[in-house]
């Protein structure tokens, strides 16, 4: 079985067993006599701040640009914030995105006086089933649970060797520990959550979530679908007495407008089979069809035949974690991403939370976090998970058009830096001038185009990638202004989340961020390459080539390092958790860097300057560590990539292999659920298109074991994907490939580099 077993109940909510079908999330605490399951929904965000039009800066754009070109960066940021106050915005603490919160706590209370013994729990990655078992007096009690993709509900079976009694309730969430930081409690995402409406009808407990000053809400239902015991309904709970076998159904539905007739949560139970095994098999077929497509194996002769999760976790926290631990992190990460991918992709916390004091709203943070959690979807053969990302980004286009129109007066799209319940750009401040960040959509466009490269699906390119990329570039056709040499300038600009060393005040406002230049350059190159390959948009190609030719030159500072800003006005600040100017090395080596050795050397120097500080950090901002490690991989620095991967492995996981944002582990966060497998795959296989002089793709190059760490001298990868529509099964011994099967899903050829 892929997954793990443990003998430890959760000591904190972050250690709950993670289950989900992409829509409903569940954290199973596994407490024997008072089981608690925290239920969430991918679209359930507690109303926090009113949804507002973006601040109307379009009519003031020239004034903002004059301030910035005069070096008055903070004044420009203050101007935007003051304008927002005039338009009804409140202070920054009131402008967070709506928070991802717990719908309700489902409780199963066992009133027996005996203390539980012989406790076990497990999580099966192959079918998504969590199991908890223990002895209670003379009874062996087992609780099996999963969230079904096939039925769209959660299912639990309680079995006992002797008749047992228990109570089932749905309760308003109660915090069991302090907020990870006091600030997130102060923000108060839960301040508008009112007491629920609870009722019992026959064998079904109904729970209606209500918020203050809004008609938005949600409905939950849990039903005793089948039992061999007696069922007694009380005003706020259901009691099952003297049962050996009980089947529970649970469902959760957001309600956009409680005043209108809406489906009832319990309606989904109608017509379902009353067989746990039948329901599990139907779900497992869908879940495992994605999960089982690929597998990583790393030789580990010292690994025991069976090992508890807590034992492996303790070994993993030592220097040089065992290979089995890296296998587990890859398996667990892929499982978590699958469970959290539904109509929308995983948030900062996937699809889970056990607190309403959620850091950063547990939203979509789009200046690196969102891009990291989807990092393994394409090479990991999880295209269904990437579809969730594509759907979500396309759903935001109307509001992103409004962002571009209202804030800049231009066509095209502009992505907000944070989104949850909507895509309007409502979150910014003087220090964090997010209205100046214009390239978020261009970053997302990278993944639209990469989806095309991994599949070479013409229809996807024409119907999804190309329209999205054109929405991005049409904005920059209007936004970019010329300098005195006829080169483009990005004014305003933003380099997440850094500020120039010589910039006074607190604001991160800037001009000509290197990442902005890199992203728009990549966008143009991908447009040209894709359209040349598919023979479309011929009338647009000269315009895009001309735009590319006017991109500002990358700059090298006095230390010989690539500058974070393509201007002499800003000085570099090295000690920072982000490394946005190294974007050209995140996912490969950008074309302009391949052709200019001096830029590669400058990028190496910039990377070394960042690493001076990164080496002093332990697991701080895990997704930033992933980005640095990906940069190391593409610079050929296997030792550093390995060291950074080990740092994450040792510091950023709970004992159920759930990930964290910071070392400790501290702050439940799913960025590395996709980031760690994505990094592992990039160390073991890389692939790139080969083009003619016009940019038309002719073939692909595949490289095996380009960054093989010394401890991984033998292993195998099955079902991994490469650009060009290729699927590979390969193995290696003593650092050399011994077997390789390449399955082509396209008409393109390849060479092994």
TrEMBL record:
Pfam families attached to this UniProt entry: Glyco_hyd_65N_2 (PF14498), Glyco_hydro_95_C (PF21307), Glyco_hydro_95_cat (PF22124)
GO terms under biological process: carbohydrate metabolic process
Gene3D superfamilies documented for this protein: 1.50.10.10, Golgi alpha-mannosidase II, putative glycoside hydrolase family protein from bacillus halodurans
Record domain Alpha fucosidase A-like C-terminal: where: 701-748
InterPro entries: 6-hairpin_glycosidase_sf, 6hp_glycosidase-like_sf, AFCA-like_C, Alpha-L-fucosidase, GH95_cat, GH95_N_dom, Glyco_hydro_b
GO molecular-function term, one example from the UniProt record: alpha-L-fucosidase activity
Boundaries of every Glycosyl hydrolase family 95 catalytic domain copy: 275-684
Domain Glycosyl hydrolase family 95 N-terminal: 8-249
Name used for this protein in its record: Uncharacterized protein
